[in-house]
Structure prediction request, 300 residues.
Amino acid sequence: MKKIVIIGASIAGHTAAVGLREKIKDCQISLITEGSYPLYDKSKLLQYLCGLLKEKDLLMVGPDFYQQQSIEFLKDRKVVQVSPSRKVVHCRHKDKRESYEYDFLAVCSGRRSVLPEITGINKEGIYTLDSLNDYKQLRQHLISDPVCFIGSVRRALPAATMLAGRQREVKVISSEGMQPAEPIDGMEIVSSEVIELIGESGVQAIRLKEGKIIGTSLPVFVPALTAANSDFLKDSGITMDGELLCVDESMCTSIKTIYASGAVCLRQGAAAAEKSWDEAIQESRMLVDGLAKAIGGADV
Prediction:
């Protein structure tokens, strides 16, 4: 029985796992995610952050969905390395190291925010808006503390506007110089750059390049720069374009047992660009067809 490991459980990884199970009944499928949840609707995360939706309203499948599909769902596991020569995925789960063997690997690990290199960036209490876990942690501290978004105005504006509309005190600090078309009650946009996060353990204030200090315990980074979650493949010998995995029309990489889809990869002849939810689904369906043909377990 072939072993298929899929890294990433957002829409690309979910589509790959479900599609492969439909096409190939006699294989073992393991779906690995750093997150704590099955597939959820990312378009509703801001409503959840503002208390308009509950956590259960975000989930697109039930807690037993993968078990019912005979898919092993491995949550809270960070992939740290892939060894293509040995066909092994190495993960960190809580304080333990784990390894999973595979015959075929599908990398659907998406993208993440790239935090700036500033003093204090490794302190506790730094938030991003990359996952449901991030939104959940931030939501727990929204009752009384003002929120300070740092980075891209374009990326910060939807969350900042919604929070300001819910009577939250909001600041957006950005060097972009961009302003909304009209002033928004409860939101201040500061044209500057953060050079230091101040505090003994967690963050208590931020220092701007002009020397001004602004008190905040809720710094949320929304940088314009994001990167593919592909660090675990940097020494694998796989062909990449920057941090993106290069794939052919069947979504196969330069290593014939490793496939990829979604925001982590770049198809041959295509230009690097942000991919939509529907585009990630389409690529994962192509991956399913390509991988199924390689396995020879389905009439596709």
